[in-house]
Amino acid sequence: MRGVAIDTPSLLAEEATLAALLRCCVREVAGPRGLVWPAPPYVLLRIAGTLLRARAYGGAALRFEGPPERLEDGSWRPLTADELVLLVEADLQGAGDNGEFAGQVAASRAAVAAILRARAEAVPPADPWLASEQALVYGHPFHPSPKARGGSGWLDYAPEAHAEFPLRLLGVREDVLAEEGDAAVLDSLGAAPAGYRLLPAHPWQLGLLRPAFGPELLDLGPGPSVLPTSSVRTVYAPDAEVCLKFSLDVRITNCVRKNAWYELAGAVELTSRLRPVFDELAIRHPATRWLPEPGYRSAALGTRLREGLGVIVRQSPWSVCSPGVTPVLAAALALDAPARDPLAWWAAYVSVVALPVLELYFAHGVVLEPHLQNVLVGLDASGLPVQAVFRDLEGTKLVADRHDLDGLHPEVAAALAYDAGRGWARVVYCLLVNHLTEIAATLAGADDGLLRELWRTARDLLAKQAGDLGWPLPFSDLLAGAPLPAKANLGVRWARAADRAAGYVPIANPLA
Ligand SMILES: Nc1ncnc2c1ncn2[C@@H]1O[C@H](COP(=O)(O)OP(=O)(O)OP(=O)(O)O)[C@@H](O)[C@H]1O
Ligand SMILES: [Mg+2]
């Protein structure tokens, strides 16, 4: 053996980075211009005049097998992520330029390699729910820089590296306490001096924010240990059995993860409005669970600190699942679905996950954001999906003309409301494109026949529900094969726009 050191983490990181960027190119750059051609077992596409190809399977999930290639002087040569970045830059020149893009892609690739190295040395949590939260090594499969994280030191807080770290405890003088709803569980995290209330802080955020300490805000030192969930900024505090959603002034995928003041208030408002809705939903969908966010706490020391230190209390998935049911993050199931009988497993999955989402939209005017990271699936002892847990009220909206939002602060109301069309696009994107497409691709592997059968099964289940609801229009369009809206993550990064400004590109509908 020659002593050639092959750094596997770097190779895997390059492969994943190239694949994610290539998927974005198919979906957002070449696809809408008609420059993608299926040529089984390959998919061919043209970017900036250059022909590219990769072996692909898994329908719209675009799983690649073997190295993507570029045609150069009449022969196929391996394509690298850096080369693809240059092609994207050349192709998108007309849409303005972006000097950050290449750096973000490279940072994401470096982060994946660092995660893989750290993970090889780390011990995964024994709790299967937490292990699933920490399984997303490569992140969003349709994002140009899924794992880019600002600054240094992030590995100490990375869920994928199985980080565990103590909260920092602050004391907020009672007259400058900002709080709504029920955040009493925070008091169990430690002890505050008389006249002060306890405010836990994420240590990474505290380092970024550097608040001035003084009589209104005390530094009380380290608190209990917590474990980060898949979103990085939401952590689980095992002793208090609660999730805490912090602000984190770091860009993760498309957003700097700050809890805006109107989102803090909105979470509490939505929690009280959604309780009766989910109670009613349970009559027809008893397998549906959700994670209430009953309260938040912060310091009323100006908008910067109120938002930067704001923490939302969220119930934990274990506390809402029935005994014997194990919550597992849907995104982890999209990597590895434990199905002995894929068709039966899929039918159970679609029933518990998709049907309540559609019922909420049509019967209650509630728009969930059921992408792979916002849904947990409750598996029974045999591994079959028997419950679904929906979370993340920041992405949950009320259809404006079906809910009376008068009386709320206008900014709180605006952040809570969606018009029906925007809401429907969000539901269809999250549920079908982001979520079910990935689960189906994992179940089917390279078996195209099985993939078609899975979608036939989904169609039958959805058609039955559309019938029960009286075939409302966008639902019947969907079942008739109207194209699906796919969120344009490359486009929004290229434009350096806010996530909420992200557009959609139409893609083929597997229910057709
Ligand atoms: N398939 C996926 N779709 C969407 N997000 C994904 C996916 N895979 C990984 N992610 C990651 O999950 C997070 C989704 O962001 P989202 O806004 O839902 O969460 P959050 O509001 O920060 O936190 P929480 O979900 O705890 O409320 C991002 O960090 C994103 O990179
Ligand atoms: Mg989320």
TrEMBL record:
<feature type="domain" description="Aerobactin siderophore biosynthesis IucA/IucC N-terminal">
    <location>
        <begin position="130"/>
        <end position="334"/>
    </location>
</feature>
<dbReference type="GO" id="GO:0016881">
    <property type="term" value="F:acid-amino acid ligase activity"/>
</dbReference>
<feature type="domain" description="Aerobactin siderophore biosynthesis IucA/IucC-like C-terminal">
    <location>
        <begin position="344"/>
        <end position="500"/>
    </location>
</feature>
<comment type="pathway">
    <text>Siderophore biosynthesis.</text>
</comment>
<protein>
    <submittedName>
        <fullName>Iron transporter</fullName>
    </submittedName>
</protein>
<comment type="similarity">
    <text>Belongs to the IucA/IucC family.</text>
</comment>
<dbReference type="Pfam" id="PF06276">
    <property type="entry name" value="FhuF"/>
</dbReference>
<dbReference type="InterPro" id="IPR037455">
    <property type="entry name" value="LucA/IucC-like"/>
</dbReference>
<dbReference type="InterPro" id="IPR007310">
    <property type="entry name" value="Aerobactin_biosyn_IucA/IucC_N"/>
</dbReference>
<dbReference type="GO" id="GO:0019290">
    <property type="term" value="P:siderophore biosynthetic process"/>
</dbReference>
<dbReference type="Pfam" id="PF04183">
    <property type="entry name" value="IucA_IucC"/>
</dbReference>
<dbReference type="InterPro" id="IPR022770">
    <property type="entry name" value="IucA/IucC-like_C"/>
</dbReference>
